[in-house]
Amino acid sequence: MPKKEIAIKHSTVLAAFLLIVWGFYRFLFKLPIEVEELFIKPLIWLLPVYFLVKREKLGIASLGVSLKNLFPTLYYSLALGVFFALEALVINVIKYKTIDFSANIGESPFTLALFISLTTAVSEEIAFRGYHFNRVWYAMGNEWRANLITSFVWALIHIPISIFWWKLNLSGTLIYLLLTTLFGMGSAFVFAKTRNVASSIILHILWEWPIVLFR
Predict the structure, then answer these.
(1) What is the rounded CA–CA span in Å between residue 194 and residue 101?
(2) What would the DSSP string read from start to end of 52-65?
(3) Smallest Cα–Cα separation from 209: which of 91, 122, 47?
(4) Among 29, 35, 66, 152, which residue carries the largest CB count within 10 Å?
């Protein structure tokens, strides 16, 4: 890992970049979800990470991209994923007065929706948990303090989509951001336990489908 000063500087630069650039993108554009998640998001989220890691003269292992701790990775992500699945069920019943999971994927084929979820999870988790949280945690030396700070930033990044895309009202936006923050904490938790970003990616997929139901 780089020196702590560099780690906190670079993680702050990445967070600011995502808040500004991704926020403006959400405000100015609304492309088809396939284009956005498969092409635009990897470009905006992962390209800065590539240059920062290259500048630090580190490899992808510094992002938690590894084959180590595969069993704990599956265990923690699936165990916490059960919580988000139950959350999905409750939200679905409250909103639709029944269980209607077709609201999650709309008209998209199941396999395409699942693939989009995977690519979204890879882009966001490598950038945020693999880089941002990992560097902040290293620089601060306190897992939970880093978890809370980065989860708050994670929620801020999701404000534009709730306002400009989904057009949620104030209460809807606040509830969505609370759920997003809780996921951010859970994702950072499983990453910290496994040191493998695959755990966060798996959890993200298990979370993303439930959370979209809130729309």
Answers:
(1) 31
(2) HHHHTT--GGGGT-
(3) 91
(4) 66
